[in-house]
């Protein structure tokens, strides 16, 4: 085999014996001869397409040189969301430090992930929001949408800190970048006139666009996509389209609050978003709006409400006081839900 320098690797032994120590040393020498910039460029490709943090750890454990080169800011700045997908049970000071290094290297994914963890899990509101803002300024769609949720709810502050217009503006920016939840949120805002002038037709257009984008993310082939899209349009918003995987930051929060920490928050009067894949907790009492039909579920956003409606709540939602109001209440709820892409929030 010809190398870039013109050397030729020796052919392997035909007798099946393990390579001699001399030959192993030759192979190591070839690697040592590779210039740093070439290895760095390979590592940049690797970290941007890594499927889990273990991909990164495997490379770092290869040798001292690789360990040092992975920590190069040029490589860290390219870290993908999956390579930073730390599980809540593995959270530690060193994981925090590693994310911080990636942030300092200019990685927007790391800024968003660490921002969400600090804001919601570690309750370090201002630094967390600042990191999310850093990612949002670099046009990170999920960060823009998360900041919109913060503005809509006035998270981290009091009820008076809600800024609906800022929420809509952030949502519009994230929707422009193709973020599905932002498209859906914006569609509902336009339909209801929430933080923006009411425009039902435009709102409906955004909701259809959200469904089409969601479909494109989860359905691999164009033929399937076309068939499902037609079915989806026929049934308006009720089609059983598979839901895309949540962002690793949402998975982290869902895991973080799944155990004792979640119970502790609930004992303190703080509820979690009922859409289990979201993982956002309230930052003050009664921050999230609840389903006005049954009153048993709470959502951080309409996007979460619409998804949870489709996944589970549609079959669980029973109107409050049904025993008193009888069929009339059920009929009114059904009519409301049919027109609102799933449930009502108050
Ligand atoms: Zn939510
Ligand atoms: Zn309900």
Concise structural overview:
The chain has 346 residues and is mainly alpha-helical. 58% of the residues lie in helices and 1% in strands.
Question: Could you characterize what this model shows?
Answer:
The chain is mainly alpha-helical and 346 residues long. Among the domains are: 88-195, Tetratricopeptide repeat domain (Serine Threonine Protein Phosphatase 5, Tetratricopeptide repeat); 248-252 and 266-339, no CATH class. It is built from 18 helices and 2 strands. It has helices spanning 21-33, 36-49, 53-60, 64-70, 73-76, 93-104, 108-121, 125-137, 141-153, 164-176, 180-192, 200-218, 222-234, 248-256, 260-267, 302-311, 322-325, 327-339, and strands at 289-290, 298-299. It is globular. Mean pLDDT is 82; it is low at 233-238 and 333-343. The structure holds zinc ion (2 copies). Residues 1-21 are annotated as: Disordered. Keywords: Metal-binding, Zinc, Zinc-finger. Residues 275-317 form the MYND-type domain. Pfam families: TPR_27, zf-MYND.
